[in-house]
Design goal:
Blueprint: H1 2-30, H2 32-54, H3 71-89
Helix pairs in contact: 1-2, 1-3, 2-3
């Protein structure tokens, strides 16, 4: 089981590199904010459907979580926005 998690972490890191490579050209065509919004919008829709069909029904409420646990979304959006603005300048 630990090997599976290690492979998932490696695949996630590789996916982040692919995402960054896709965001640069997309941002040069539609702009930084639209590129970032499209990536996060598609991810949000996909996550919603995964949660709808595979999440346990006794999950904690989104509003009951500590605020510091939700900062990953802000950091991820900031990363994508900064990367797309840097890649579009090249």
């Amino acid at each position: 089981m630990a090997l599976l998690f290690i492979l998932l972490v490696i695949a996630g890191g590789m996916g982040l590199s692919v995402e960054a490579g896709l965001l640069g050209p997309l941002a040069s065509q539609v702009g930084d904010l639209w590129a970032t919004m499209s990536i996060f919008g598609i991810g949000a829709v996909l996550t919603f459907f995964l949660m709808l069909f595979f999440s346990p029904r006794s999950s904690p409420s989104f509003f009951s979580l500590p605020g510091w646990q939700l900062t990953g979304g802000l950091l991820g959006a900031g990363y994508c926005l900064l990367y797309t603005s840097d890649a579009a300048d090249e």
